[in-house]
Amino acid sequence: MAEFLLVHGAGHGAWCWRDVVPALERLGHRAKAIDLPGHGEDTTPYQEVTLDLYADAILDALDHPMIVVGHSMGGYPITLAAERNPLNFQHLVYLCAYVPKPGLSLAQMRMEAPYQPLLPAIRMTEDRTGWTADPDMIGDVFYHDCPEGTVDFARDRLCIQATQPTSVPVETGKNYASVPRSYIRCADDRAIPPEYQVTMTEDWPSDHVFTMDCAHSPFFADPDGLARILDQIAKG
Q1: How many CB atoms lie within 10 A of CB 5?
Q2: Distance separating alpha carbons of residues 95 and 217, to the nearest angstrom
Q3: Would you say the pTM of this structure is higher than 0.85?
Q4: Do the Cβ atoms of 86 and 175 come closer than 8 Å?
Q5: Domain ranges in the chain?
Q6: I want to staple 93 with a disulfide (CB 3.0 to 4.6 A). Which of 69, 132, 167, 200 is the partner?
Q7: Which positions are annotated as active-site residues?
Q8: What CATH homologous superfamily does 3-234 map to?
């Protein structure tokens, strides 16, 4: 039995892991999902949200060893948290997520990809310190292969994503290097190009990289398949 901490990506919340938690429990594991500051039920104003606050929230949730899964944007805060204190990180799992590159913010990494499918859907807030995804485009960008009802469920819950967490780089050292890590690529991703997911992991051991034939939201499109891969990672 393993324990998982599930960390969402941009604009999402703990709610996106709705189907994965019971899927992992059916395989004999325990899992909990958290809301990062400014997401889900956390009421921190997006203007006050920082990458540091994200990392603090992850570390606060880790009171014992767990496998930490970060989706999409969540790759940055799980990396920063592991670098700050790797003690309770049994394993890091990047789920179609950004793996921080030295000296680059997430926004800069996004522009390194061969194309930027998410950009046309981004709508900046008036104060330019946050953004939302165009509600008419979220189905195609995030959920095109998900079950009926997913778009409505998500549309009611997606929140403003603060820009600060995606504007600063994460520097890593021996703490981060001490934590085992795996990556789950999504071959039909329309938010982070699959080609760029390959680029980010091209020098990783092949047995630490997995591929799902789905888009950017495998927690809705194939929660059981995702749970099976996480189970495989947990078993080493």
Answers
A1: 22
A2: 9
A3: yes
A4: yes
A5: 3-234
A6: 69
A7: 72
A8: Alpha/Beta hydrolase fold, catalytic domain (3.40.50.1820)
